[in-house]
Amino acid sequence: METKLFKEYLEYFDDKNYIDRELKLPKYSKNIITVIGPRRVGKTWLLLKHAKERERKGYEVAYVNFDDPVIRSYKIKDIFDTLLREKFDYIYLDEIQSIPNWDLWLRRIHNLKKENIFVTGSSFALSQYKIPSTLRGRYISYLLLPFSYKEIRDFMSLEDYLFIGGFPEIVGLRDLGEIKRKHLALIDTIFYRDVIEHYNIRNIYIAKKLLEYYLFNYSNLMSISKTTKIMKSWNIKVSKKTVWQYTEYFKDSFIFMDVRIYSHSYKKKMQYPYKNYIIDSGIVHSYTGGLDLGRAIENIVALELLRKEKDISYYKTKKHFEVDFIVQSQGKIEEVIQVVYDINNPEVFEREIRALLHAKEELKLGDDVSLTVITWDYEDAREVEWWRKRGKIRFVPLWKWLLQV
């Protein structure tokens, strides 16, 4: 196999006029470094940028894109044998989940090369939480999502960001028809390549209807049982097991990410409904034709917390008041967050603060734990009381919170 194939992408790569990402990869690592995330969020660009920087420093670099038809025409063994024989300083393997037994090939090259192996994948199966046992102890994963507001605030307003989203190929577009076509093509690519083809699903109609249901119900509480009943009410014959399987496929393909209830019991976490957050609010807007502003900004907050690798849950108080996010760091609660578009309505104000104050009391939280309400444009910080429960609550506009987090 000709080694020039490992240089082609680097020769044509140009990092000028691109928006830089907040995510920074280490320059050197004895662990396998993996960047995971949905298709078309810039994983390839991030990998190529890192590779180009190493090449400019004088290192021998190899880049392999397993989605490239030319690369796919070679035997996998020949590709890896060539990579090892040429003794490259850095090896970059893009979309490695495309090859059978990817984990075994990755282990082989790490066993023999030991260091500076960088990988991307469009499947949550490559995350640190789900990797096969063959790679335990030698693997670090990073999550790359569509652009954050902080990354593209110089190119669009927060309102535009809410409706257009942060996929790189959408940023800069102004024609609403073109934006919609791009979003629909994007979700179709993820759906067909990473769900239907990857998992060899035969009943595409059922999978498509389930996808539609999730896209319309972003930021809502969901359960497999309820979803199965709703599908059956649409005269779709589907088992609970199939709904569960397809749901897992959607999560693994980053169509949506789920957030579980806060509990020390794993069984309770798995049995209770989960919150469903779609990977990009722009896709929701284009697919469904509209946005509920309260749910949309909650979706953005959830993605930002996940982007920052926060451990998040939602919470139900004993009186069934719902708290949007319990944020933990190293097993300790550091913040409790409510998200609301308009806090000026007295009923809404009472609903949000009573949930926070009940959660503070029930979870025995000290004053060092922040109680936060994220709003569209209201800002304040004050001591609040509700039925003999007290706490200091800060109200933060969404734009400011996104720039601070």
Summary of the model, kept short:
This protein has helices at residues 8-12, 43-56, 69-72, 76-85, 102-113, 149-152, 158-164, 176-197, 204-216, 224-233, 240-252, 266-271, 281-288, 293-307, 346-362, 398-404, and strands at 32-36, 61-65, 90-94, 117-121, 139-143, 220-222, 256-259, 274-278, 311-316, 322-329, 332-339, 370-375, 380-386, 389-397. The protein has 405 residues and is of the alpha/beta class.
By CATH's scheme, which homologous superfamily of the largest domain applies? P-loop containing nucleotide triphosphate hydrolases
Helical amount among residues, as a percent range?
Answer: 40-55%
Q: Estimate the strand proportion.
A: 15-25%
- Supply the CATH architecture of the largest domain: 3-Layer(aba) Sandwich
Counted beta strands: 14
How many structural units, i.e. domains? Answer: 3
Specify the oligomeric state.
Answer: single chain
Output the helix-strand order: HEHEHHEHEEHHHHEHHEHEHHEEEHEEEH
Q: Provide the low-confidence segments as ranges.
A: none
Radius of gyration over C-alpha positions, nearest whole angstrom: 23 Å
